[in-house]
Design brief:
It contains 6 helices and no strands. The longest helix is centred in the middle third of the chain and has 24 residues, at about 65-90. Helix 1 crosses helix 4 (about 65-90). It is about 55% helix and about 0% strand.
Length: about 180
């Protein structure tokens, strides 16, 4: 239920932050043109399902349905990450202490690699990957499904940084980089 609320709040904030503003064209360059027929896009998604390669560009299968859904799913995902990492930190959990090894995301994965906050954002994303690896292992040791059954792609990380920049009110959005 929390994920659904976060998704729907994403739609609300899209309406407040994107249309007609400085982020509208950068949004379209990264997420796609939201002016495409929404009803037809959803009908197609429900009739035929997501494209086979949705994982290469989106945080979820539903995100591939339409740019508005891509934004809302990525927004919800961002809020999940922020809240879960904050909660883990408040309990002193440190995924860095584990023996799990991951290929860390680097600056080329970002929407705006040269942003002054880029290193901190990369640490945030990489901390998330490490933490979810540990949480998945804990779930598996209890015979449960993965806590976090997703794999972030480079385009999804770029979209997450875009949302991070919009939420942070960063100036001068520029064009999508690399």
């Amino acid at each position: 239920m929390l994920g659904h609320f976060r998704h729907e709040i994403g739609h609300y904030y899209w309406q407040l932050l994107i249309p007609g503003g400085r982020w509208e064209e950068p949004f379209r360059a990264l997420f796609g043109d939201e002016r495409q027929d929404y009803d037809a896009a959803l009908k197609s998604h429900y009739d035929t399902g997501p494209p086979a390669d949705w994982r290469l560009r989106h945080v979820s299968a539903y995100a591939s349905a339409h740019p508005w859904e891509d934004w809302a799913e990525t927004w919800a995902h961002y809020l999940h990450m922020v809240d879960t990492l904050d909660t883990a930190s408040s309990f002193g959990l440190d995924a860095h202490a584990s023996d799990l090894r991951y290929e860390r995301f680097a600056a080329p994965a970002l929407y705006r690699p040269g942003d002054a906050d880029a290193t901190r954002f990369l640490d945030f994303v990489n901390d998330w990957v490490e933490l979810t690896g540990v949480l998945n292992e804990l779930s598996r040791s209890m015979g449960l499904a993965d806590f976090y059954p997703f794999v972030l792609s480079v385009p999804a990380v770029a979209k997450l940084q875009f949302i991070h920049l919009v939420v942070g009110g960063r100036p001068d959005p520029g064009a999508a980089a690399s």
